[in-house]
């Protein structure tokens, strides 16, 4: 009887130790997994922070490159060079950059009364496919109304199969003043 009792107690102790070992193993596994999750979350935050910092640097570099590329492309308007519709569209497109906000802009042509008149005369004497659109837009500009500049920009941008640089709004007076100072003065 004594041996039986010792056998039962032995089994109970062995079973208790087995449960304790399994419990300890489960605890260790959960501790490691949750530590990995915390490290992973911390790494994600660090990566996001680094991305944000690098995005800010990249945006500033991109903005500087855009300004440099626009400055390189500031051009005078030569009537002989804008007699084709494609050249006319390019010139008008670059003129809109003075009035519109877009993430990307390539090239700049200053809007002056003389240029508006020149472009309007060319459009009137042309057989351009979009002649009426150009004449309506430029007539409004001649009358001092540039509220259509976003529409004009995006109309041309779409016909040139633009993928980046869609105009989102008109520039404020201050933004336009800064643009003119930067590229034309």
UniProtKB/TrEMBL annotation:
Residues 43-72 are annotated as: Disordered. It holds the Pfam family DUF6241. Residues 45-63 have a biased composition (Basic and acidic residues). The chain crosses the membrane at residues 12-33. Keywords: Membrane, Transmembrane, Transmembrane helix. The keyword Transmembrane helix applies. This is Uncharacterized protein.
